[in-house]
Amino acid sequence: MSPRFSSLEICAGAGGQALGLEAAGFDPVLLLDDDPHACGTLSTNRPHWRILRADLKDFVGTEHSGVADVDLLSGGLPSAPFAVAGRQRGAADDRDLLRAAIFLAMDVRPRAIMLESTPNLLTNPRFADARSFVGEELSHMGYRWDYRVLDARDFGVPQTRRSGIIVALLPSDFDRFVWPVGGRSAPTVGEVLRVSMGSRGWPDAESWALSADQVAPTIVGGSKRHGGADLGPTGTKRAWLTLGVDGSGLGDQVPGSEFVLAPELGREGLPKLTVDQVKRLQALPDDWWISGRKTPAYRQVAQALPPPVAEAVGRSLAAAFA
Which GO terms of type biological process are on file (predicted)? Predict the structure, then answer.
């Protein structure tokens, strides 16, 4: 039997990263998030997980049993402070939790660290100071670190979704760490959603699926400060149109027998996706229940790290512990 390892997850959200790490051999001693809907999602799907609703900036890990010296500190940090849509204010944005995550590592001293955020944090010259802060503090703690931008479609997820991943390990473990190389073929939107689109008797479901012959564009979740339950900014909505999807909002249910597919009418003649369908495009399990009404449920799903990406990195980390 493969060994199991312990993890502390921050900014846990809907649990995409935790699910992937669970499959890779990591069992959380505690999962932290400040959103009540996310905490509801996690506690409903995994009643045995220990969930804490709290602000990361106020969290002191060593005040909680089982947290000190955990094998892995993991989490998906808010992307808005480093994203174009979030005005790229970095550490000046009160939503930035990068420093809080590094300070938590000082407190907890995990064997390894895995933090996910927007690739912009790792590649944009504007955030060189943030990367320097991370590198200097991790080095002071005795870690070696690296980062990589991984695309979910390379790990079988039906979506072009680039995630920036930071890993840090103790030197002896770091020497054994190898970044996962994705090689799985990702299905198209039509292949993934064909059955669900026809589940209410929509006669055009098959022809729609044949035309939705590419992977999805990046699913954008918006933030609590702005944006609603739609599939993203103007450019992203145009990409959805080419796949035969009205990205201006989300549907409450899939098309029924009365709906007529009419691409020539623009978005009015195209179906909208439901939250459950977006969940499938994020590679979350069908039985993974999401708390909240449509908008908060969609945000949780859209902001998740697809489990196959987390699992791939987690397996590389676990192998480095051998």
Answer: methylation
